[in-house]
Every structure is written in C-alpha cells, then in structure tokens.
Write a structure and sequence with these properties.
Blueprint: H1 5-17, H2 23-42, H3 48-63, H4 67-101, H5 104-115, H6 121-133, H7 138-156, H8 160-177, H9 182-191, H10 195-224, H11 250-273, H12 279-287, H13 290-308, H14 313-322, H15 328-347, H16 349-357, H17 364-379, H18 382-397, H19 402-415, H20 425-434, H21 438-464
Helix pairs in contact: 1-15, 1-18, 2-3, 3-4, 3-15, 4-7, 4-13, 4-14, 4-15, 5-7, 5-11, 6-7, 6-8, 6-10, 7-8, 7-20, 8-10, 8-19, 8-21, 9-18, 9-19, 10-19, 10-21, 11-12, 11-13, 15-20, 16-17, 17-18, 17-19, 18-19, 19-21
Length: 467
C-alpha cells in the first residue's frame, strides 16, 4: 500500500520482533478473532468498522497479549492504512466523480460497449484491468476503474459481477505476478531473480490465469451473485440517465485516465534501469508516487475532462465536493481492516505459519506457494506474504538455476493472492464498492482470488516442466 521497499518490509519486521506466543494460543486466537468478525457482521448486522475493531481485541485477549499492546497494534495499522490507502481512495473518488460527471466515463463506456459484444465485453474489461493494474497497487486501480465498471454494467445490461470480476482479475494478477509491480519486485530483489526472465514468465503465466479467473469464472459467479451496479458514481438524476450534450473525446479521456498509470510506470522503470541519485530518477520517483500521481491526475482531469465537457469552476467544485461523502464509510472499514491485519502480524502468526512448512521436504515451488498462502490467510496482506515467503526461501534459491528462481518468484506471487477474506482491506473495498453482503463477496471476489491463485500455481508448475 506504500511505495518504497522499507515500507514493504515493516510489517514483516514487526512480525519478526513480536513476542513469542505459544502456538496453542496463537492459532485459536486468530481463528476466533476472524469468527467473531464474521458473526458480528453477518448474524448481528454490526457495522464492519465495529466488527473489525472488536475482532482485533478478541485476538489479543485470546492470545494473552496485553490489551494496551493490542490497542497500539490496531491503531498503528488503522493509522498507516488510513494515511496510505485513505488519501488514495479520496483522490481516486474525486477523479472518478469528475470522470463520471464530465461524461468522460460515458465516452469510454460507449467506445468499449460499441466495439464489444456481450460475449467479448468481459474479456475487454479483463484487459483494461490488467493494463491499469500493471504499475500500481490493487486499491488504486480499483478506485480508478470503479466508474467505468459501473457504467459498463448499466449500459450493457450485464451484472456488475460479470463485468467487474474480469477487471478485478486483471488487477489482482498484475499485483501478484508481473513486475514492475512492487510485490514481484520485492521477491525478485530478495531471491536475486533475473528481472527480464521473471517479467517474461510473469506475462506468460498471467494471461491464461486472468482468462480463467476473470471472464470464465465470471460466468459462474454471475449466476451466484446477481446485483445491479451501485449508483455511487452516477451523475445526479441518473436512473433514466440524462447525458451531457458536451463531453470530452475518447482520446482526451484516455489521456486523463492513463496519466497516473504512466507516471507510476515511469517511476517503476526508472527504479529498475537508472542509478540511484540520477536526476531523472529523482524526478520520476516523485511524480510516480501514488499520492502525487493521483493528485496530478485530478488536476489534469479538471482541465481536460472539465474543459472538454464545458464545466465551469462552480460545477467542477461541486463535482469534487460530492465525491467525498459516499466514501466515508469505506475509509473507516478499510482502515479498520488494516488495524486487524496489524494485530495479527504483531502477534507473530506469520512467522509461526512459516516455521510449520519451512522444512517439509516438498517441491520448492509448491512449498513457496503454500508458505505464501498460509501467511496471506493469516495476515490478509499479499505484501507481507510475499516478503515473508521470499525471506524464508532465499537460501533455497541460491542453489537454483536462473529460470527456476524466476518461477519461485511467481509461485510466491500466486500464493500471496489466495482467498481474500475479512482481514484483507481489498475484501472490504470490493464489498463496499459493489454493494455486496459478506457472503456475496466471498462467493464472487474471494473465490475469484482463489481461482487466480490456484491456476497461477498450475501454470507456474507447467512452465517449470519446460524450462
């Protein structure tokens, strides 16, 4: 959720420094905490913010951690998540509302729907998700895509699940498998893998993985979960939607949408190919920081989208102002999810899970996937899973060939996105944005992540047979 390697390592380091807690208390504590959250939200209809807060306290109480330390862990995770993801969600919501109110989202939707049949539309959305998700975190790409997903669903008459799941699959696959996304870059650095080979293998694995977990799985998930697109990004009065008489062109809209993508991609490439201290890298590192990139996108959108739609200063101000109230609940829930995750990390559950499988003697690629899966399930963080699994397996990588090390990176990446559930901020983002219940989110988003993870492992193992 943050942009530098040190920030990536902080959760894993915190877990390593956590006081030792017996496994007999730690595992039940995590399971009971998760059960309490699910029960409070589903049975007693408690707001997820309160459920996540009480779940965190439950974990600490059962594990025998001092309650003051539990509160410290929760507030630390809450604050860091709000500071990193919260500001991005706010800026993304501003850009998304501006995109919708200017008619720019309509232009993209009309172009996509006009050139795609009902059968090919999910595939087009998967491609868009993969493109947007390549250089940025899942949460940022999700925020940028939300208005497009909702409008495509409304215009095409398809369920938001059939349209949204393919886009989410593209986003998530990039998150776990393909550099220059930060997750794979961390594993590449830790395992000393070859960047070019890992990138090539990552694309080879990601394409069929996205196909299976995106458009193909969406056909099934759409039968289980059939919900209309929420009106979060709808223009006022959108029901029988009254379109603007003037709106920005497709080219101008695409330029605005891709502005943060290009800036973040520039930063990623500069970090790879230029030396530290290089003036170009320094500038691109600043411009490509997600906060700065999205802030620039909002400013660019005000001029390109706003001017293209003939919006005046007052209309632009109103659009930006109305973008924030609908996301207040989302910010609290996502931040509380970060607090719960930090509580689990600080108890040491990730290290415990890693110790269980480190000396199991199974296939290295399968072992890497299992380690990442278990840490992902325990902490809810793909980044923590990637960092921890890479650290555990680094000694084994030293004796492997260059292609095998790249496959090891991808196996860890595939495992790091397995079955997102209540301790993952992404779970709550999808639930709240799509207007789903916890059960519907599990049957769509969580299962999609599982299909993506398992199919990713299968394709990594198949690729391992020929390299």
């Amino acid at each position: 959720m943050t942009t530098d390697l040190f920030s990536f390592l902080q959760p894993a380091l915190a877990a390593a420094d956590a006081p030792a807690i017996p496994a007999g208390r730690l595992v039940p504590a995590a399971l009971i905490g998760i059960a309490v959250i699910v029960l409070l939200i589903t049975k007693f209809k408690l707001h997820p913010f309160l459920g996540l807060t009480l779940g965190s306290l439950t974990v600490g109480a059962v594990a025998g951690v001092a309650m003051g330390d539990v509160v410290t862990s929760f507030t630390k995770g809450f604050g860091s998540t709000a500071a990193s993801v919260g500001t991005l969600i706010a800026l993304g919501a501003m850009f998304g509302k501006l995109l919708a109110d200017s008619g720019g989202a309509d232009e993209i939707v009309d172009t996509i729907v006009g050139r795609s049949s009902a059968r090919t539309l999910p595939w087009a959305m998967a491609g868009v998700g993969a493109l947007i998700g390549l250089p940025m975190f899942f949460e940022i790409g999700l925020v940028l895509l939300m208005p497009v997903i909702f409008l495509v669903a409304r215009r095409s008459g398809l369920s938001v699940i059939k349209v949204g799941i393919p886009a989410l699959a593209g986003l998530s696959a990039m998150h776990g498998l393909v550099p220059p996304h930060p997750g794979p870059l961390v594993a590449i650095d830790a395992l000393k893998a070859n960047l070019g080979i890992t990138l090539a293998f990552g694309v080879l694995v990601a394409l069929p993985t996205i196909a299976l977990s995106g458009p193909l799985f969406a056909r099934i998930a759409g039968r289980w979960v059939d919900v209309p697109a929420p009106d979060m990004f709808a223009v006022d009065g959108d029901g029988g939607r009254e379109e603007r008489l003037e709106r920005p062109s497709f080219g101008v809209t695409l330029f605005a949408v891709l502005t943060p993508v290009v800036l973040m991609m520039g930063k990623a490439l500069a970090d790879i190919f230029t030396a530290e201290g290089n003036p170009v890298r320094t500038v691109l590192d600043f411009l490509g920081t997600p906060l700065v990139a999205l802030l620039i996108a909002v400013i660019v959108g005000m001029f390109t989208l706003g001017r293209g739609a003939g919006m005046g200063t007052k209309e632009l101000s109103t659009s930006l102002e109305k973008s924030l109230p609908p996301i207040a609940g989302i910010l609290l829930i996502v931040s509380a999810g970060g607090g719960f995750k930090q509580t689990l990390v600080d108890t040491g559950i990730g290290g415990l899970v890693a110790d269980w499988v480190q000396n199991s003697g199974m296939s290295v690629l399968l072992l890497a996937w299992i380690v990442a899966v278990l840490i992902r399930l325990a902490t809810g963080s793909a980044t923590v899973a990637t960092v921890t699994a890479s650290g555990i397996l680094a000694p084994l990588a030293a004796g492997m060939s260059t292609p095998e090390v790249s496959l090891l990176v991808l196996a860890i990446g595939a495992g790091s996105v397995f079955f997102s559930h209540v301790n993952d901020a992404g779970f709550w983002l999808v639930k709240e944005y799509f207007g789903l219940s916890v059960g519907q989110t599990i049957k769509s988003w969580s299962l999609m992540e599982t299909v993506l993870s398992v199919s990713g492992l299968v394709f990594v193992l198949l690729l391992g047979l020929v390299v």
